[in-house]
Amino acid sequence: MDAVEVAGLRIAYRRVGSGPPLVLFHGAGEDSRIWRHQLEDLCRDFTVIAWDAPGCGQSDDPAPDLSARDLGLLAAGFIEEAAGGKGKPHILGVSWGSIVALELFKGYPEIPASLLLVSAYAGWAGSLPPEEVDRRMAMVEAEIGEPPGKFVHEWLPTLLTKAADPAVVAEVAAVMLDVRPASLRALLSASGRADYRSVLPTIAVPTLLIYGEEDQRAPLPVARELHRQIPGAALTVIPGAGHLVFAEAPEPFNTEVRRFLQGLA
Question: Burial of 23 by CB count in 10 Å (0-12 exposed, 13-18 middle, 19+ buried)?
Fold first, then answer.
């Protein structure tokens, strides 16, 4: 893996392929390994750059009081270091990574060429009822410091459908079992009560929303509301897939990403 230093933190990342830059922001509890199918396929047409978020994979741990603004600064600095000089990047974020993408756009709207928001929220507080936000906050708070094996297998049924290939379930579990408390603290500190509803109508770059039809964590009403709020956004729903739609249905997912980005070109 390659690495860059941003604001005193070592940020590790994977970079493959050639062509326009496509930056991938993974979800909470994951790292760049989760994008295996995208790194292997989309590299035929794009320079695919997948970071290990601070506190994840081979990247340094952030301060426990990481703020949303800090997160946006780190994302912007990472893009400048890892993708600078290759043209404006397309930004793809899944779940928590979609929150990173929205924070990046909020602070640095000149950076993205486009946004691809997958299984996305306008922040938990921007998309979910207050009682559900409280429940999720309490759950993650309780899990910080617990052995990952104690809670990761409870997460999996909310991330993948019952029909998911057992090999996919095992691959996702193997990545998530390496989660560190620092990444969960960063999620809570920077994003736990984030609300980007005011940002959505200001998005002025081409935007694609991709959701799994059976997503339990960011269900279709959330998708439809983001679609309504983001000017000119396109919405694609992939049948039979759950929250980690890119891992559970990689071929249709990659097809939709490629079609959207090549359409822009």
Answer: buried
Tell me which residue of 98, 104, 72, 101 sits closest to 6, measured CA to CA.
72
Pairing relation of β-strands 47-51 and 9-16?
antiparallel
In the beta sheet, which residues pair with residue 254? Answer: none
Would the pLDDT of 182 be above 80? no
Cα–Cα distances in angstroms (integers) from residue 51 to residues 2, 69, 82, 179, 255, in the given order: 9, 18, 9, 15, 22
Reduced to 3 states (helix: H, G, I; strand: E, B; else coil), residue 30 is coil
pTM of this prediction? 0.96
Digit-coded pLDDT (tens) for 23-53: 999 999 999 999 999 999 999 999 999 999 9
Q: How many CA atoms lie within 13 A of 166 on its CB side?
A: 0
Sign, CA torsion 229/79/152/137: negative
How confident is the model over 90-140, as pLDDT tens digits?
Answer: 999 999 999 999 999 999 999 999 999 999 999 999 999 999 999 999 988
Structure tokens at 198: 């005011």
Q: Report the interhelical angle of 68-83 vs 96-107 (nearest 10°).
A: 80
Please give the DSSP secondary-structure letter assigned to residue 187: I
Contact 138, 236 (CB under 8 A): no
